[in-house]
Amino acid sequence: SVPLAFFSGIGAGSKLGILFKGGIAIEALQNVKAVVMDKTGTVTEGNFELQRILPAKGFAEEQVLAMAGTCEQNSTHPIAASIMAAVQKQGITPWAPDSVKEIAGKGIEAAAEEGTLLCGSRSLLLDAGISTDDERAESGGTEVFLAVNGKYAGSLIIADTVKEDAKSAVTAMKRQGIVTAMLTGDGPETAQAVAAETGIDEVHAKLLPEEKLRELTQIRSTHGSVMFVGDGINDAPVLAGADVGAAMGSGADAAIEAADVVFMTSAMSAIPQALSIAKATGRIAK
Ligand code: ADP
Ligand code: MG
Predict the structure, then answer these.
(1) The whole model's pTM is what?
(2) 238 with 230: CB under 8 angstroms?
(3) 99-103 and 107-112 strand pairing
(4) One GO cellular component from the entry (predicted)?
(5) Along the 286 residues of the chain, how does pLDDT read in single tens digits?
C-alpha cells in the first residue's frame, strides 16, 4: 500500500541523516526538476579564514583589520568570526563604536569617535558612492571591503572552501536529470569560481534575500518544480517559497521549522540521495 512505501522511504532516509517531513515531502521530491542551492554553508563549508589584507594607498594592514573588527565584533555572520579570530591573533583592539547597524546581505555600518565605517560587499560601498579597487577574491573566497569617512580603506580576502563532495553530488544530480543552480549574495567572481569547480549549471550572484526568491520563481517557470537547499541564515523566505524546502547541516531553528526535508549532515551528497530515495519510494508505491 502507499503509506507502507512511504514508511520505507522515511526509514532509508533516516539511516543517512535525511529527515522527510512525512509522505507529502517524499511525493513532492519525486517531481523535482531543478535543485537551487545557497552558496555559503551549502556548497561551501561556511568556515571562513582571513587570508590577506589589501590596504588602500595611505592605510596600514593593522588599521584595516581594526576597522573591520570594530564593525564585526557583535555580528553572528560567518564572515565576522574569521575577522574577529584574526583581530585576536594579532592583538588588535577594535574601536568602541557608538552605533552598529547590520544590513542583511550587504554588511555593516558603524559609527565611532575615530570615524564612520562601512564593512561589507562592494555594493555596500558603491551605494554610498565609494568606489573600490577591482575584486581580487580567488576560488571559494570572498572579498570584504572597508571604507572610513566616505573613503575607500582597503579589503580583506576571506577564504571559504568548497565542500569535498560538492562536485560528485552535482554530477549525481545531473545524472538524475536535475538542473542545478546556485544563488548567492556574494560577488560574481567568487560565485563563478565555485560554479566552475563544482559543475553547477546556473549561477546568480549579488542577490539580496528577497531577490533570491524572485530568482527561484524564475527558475521554476523555466524548468518546473524546484527544491531549494540552504542553511537558513537569511534565506528562510526562499526556503518557504520553494516546492520543496530543505535545511542543511546545523541550520537555523527557523529554517528547520520551515523545511520539508532536513539534512542532519552537511555533506552535499545527501541531496542526490534524498532524490533517489524519493524516486525509489515512488516505484514501490506504484
Ligand atoms: P550568501 O548568499 O553567500 O549566503 P549573504 O547573503 O549572507 O551570503 O551575504 C552576502 C554578502 O554580503 C557577503 O558575501 C558579504 O560580501 C556581505 N556581508 C553580509 N554580512 C556581512 C558581514 N557581517 N560582514 C561583512 N560582509 C557581509
Ligand atoms: Mg547564506
Answers:
(1) 0.84
(2) yes
(3) antiparallel
(4) plasma membrane
(5) 456 677 788 888 888 999 998 888 899 999 999 999 999 889 999 888 999 999 999 999 999 999 999 999 999 888 999 999 999 999 999 999 999 999 988 999 999 999 999 999 999 999 999 999 876 765 557 899 999 999 999 999 998 899 999 999 999 999 999 999 999 998 898 899 999 999 999 999 999 888 999 999 999 999 999 999 998 777 888 988 999 999 987 666 767 788 999 999 899 999 999 999 999 987 766 5
* 39 CA to centre of ligand 2 in angstroms: 7
User: Mutate which of 77, 119, 124, 135 to test ligand 1's pocket (most atoms within 8 Å of Cβ)?
Assistant: 77
| CA dist., res. 112 & res. 273, Å (int) | 50
Which amino acid residue places its CA nearest to atom 22 of ligand 1? 107
Gap between the Cα atoms of 237 and 257, Å rounded: 12
Q: Evaluate: CB of 236 within 6 angstroms of ligand 1.
A: no
* Cβ neighbours for 182, distance < 8 A, ≥ 6 positions apart: 36, 37, 38, 39, 43, 191, 194, 195, 200, 202, 203, 204
> Is the CB of 212 within 6 Å of ligand 1?
no
Q: Which domains does the chain have, with CATH numbers?
A: 2-43+163-285 (3.40.50.1000), 49-159 (3.40.1110.10)
Distance 46 CA to ligand 2 centre (A): 9
144 pocket-lining for ligand 1 (C-beta < 6 Å): yes
- 235 has catalytic annotation: no
**77 CA distance to ligand 2 middle (Å):** 9
> Which ligand number lies closest to the CA of residue 158?
1
